[in-house]
Write a structure and sequence with these properties.
By secondary structure, the chain is of the alpha/beta class. Helices cover 40% and strands 8% of the residues. It has a domain of 379 residues: Rossmann fold, CATH 3.40.50.300. Belongs to the sulfotransferase 1 family.
Amino acid sequence: MRYCINCCIHLLPNDLHRQCFRCRGPDHNNQKCPVCKGENKIPLYTESKQMKWLAVLEVRTDHCESWNGFFCLRKGKLCSLMFGLIIMTLVMVSYILTGAKHGLLLIPSPFNYGAFASNPSLMDNESLSDMKDHYQPSKMNISYVKDYPSIKLIIDTITSKIEFITRQRPDLEELRKQEPHMFSVIPNKFLPNSKNPCWYEEYQGNTTTDPYATNSYALYSKRFRIIFDYLRKVFWNHLYHYKDKHYRLRCLPHFYIIGQPKCGTTDLYDRLRLHPEVRFSAIKEPHWWTRKRFGIIRLRDGFHDRYPVEDYLDLFDIAAHQIQSVLQSEAVREHGKMNNIIIGEASASTMWDNNAWIFFYDNSTEGEPPFLIQDFIHAFHPNAKLIIMLRDPVERLYSDYLYFASANKSAEDFHEKVVESLQLFESCVLDYSLRACVYNNTLNNAMPVRLQVGLYVVYLLDWLTVFNKDQILVLRLEDHASNMRYTMHKVFQFLDLGPLSEKQEALITKSPASNTRRPEDRSLGPMLPTTKAILRDFYRPFNTKLAQVLFDDAFLWKRT
């Protein structure tokens, strides 16, 4: 059925337009129209039947009476043209904005570093990654290549501001004032017949007391409750009874795997724990020194109650039970032999994460933290040994991005995040020292990718102000991946561990790599060549200094 665009009635079935009463001329009278029937309304007809849509649909004729058919048609075309122009404009604006998004951000960041506010960082999980994987070359966007000179100017500015200034180490009394409870719990002397730092602590509870009732690790994490359920069952069997008093053996770690994330620390941990003389904390990464003792579970969730040092020591109870069994053995008691079991802890945040200091420590100098993690570790155990696993910082950053980014991961997205992070870092070093920027919580959480974690030498130099160089073993993931037996022997020698049988050594060195890159991340391919060139330029002065400190040019990472 067709309708006349000018008239109040539908066309007759023969589709002859002359049958339309309204189209006979401008003298049409609603009173005479056999369809209008004297009403100033236009009913809608379909298939000769009047319809009602939802309610009575009415169209007033007054609006059309001033138009003739040709004018209505012209106005309809004009509206269509205007609508098309609007759509075309929206499409062009969308295209321009998308192009701007994929270009390089060259406008200086308005980021203000005046106040160091907090926002949470991510928990660290490390990986051996896929050092032997090969990727197909990705297609290159020419716009990234064209903007490289502008980004190089940012890097040159950062490089010009680099100064490796030795920090002032706080004295012991200052540390005691900051953490009096820790110093009241941990003694300054340990058992002489144990290689691992341990001591006996009087236990005040009775048989009905739950020794782990208030442990924050058990309260806040369901996956740790199984461990503490086991500890509750065996707790009383391992108490030492002397003169009507009960004592429990407490232990600190003998060594720490302190970093870095995405550099293979998980794989090193999994292999090292297979050695018969090595034990680890009940949780691989307690993150107590860097986060939990400040009440940080997840930084994005804000602060919770601070985990006391007793909660941290509870994590070593399983290992302490085994050490106690050795100490009470005849060989140790009567023949003066040593306990050779040692305990390790493998939080990969220990080396670099001092982000919480601003909320707890006053009297900072020009934005630099007055106290660092290593100050307290050294105060309690000055003979501790430290293991650091590093990799090419350029590859580490990309692996870190692939592991922690949740959506829209791509080489192009990584490039944009790198550029934005460089701009933020440049803004900071223009006003603050390198150390202040590296330990700046606000900056570190504002950067889309964790550039600062790859500034290995900044952290290492700060650790060397507290510990001697022979207490720190620095390894490269590239060497570990190519010759695992060699690196594991270096670790065994560093920790002064006993010899292994061929079967034990094969179990440690030939087991599959741990925590490798996920298949879905591998499919994304490598970073863009321009991104790699930018990061190479950024990390070069830091790698050069690192190679000088370690007297090893392998840490220049020229071949990767």
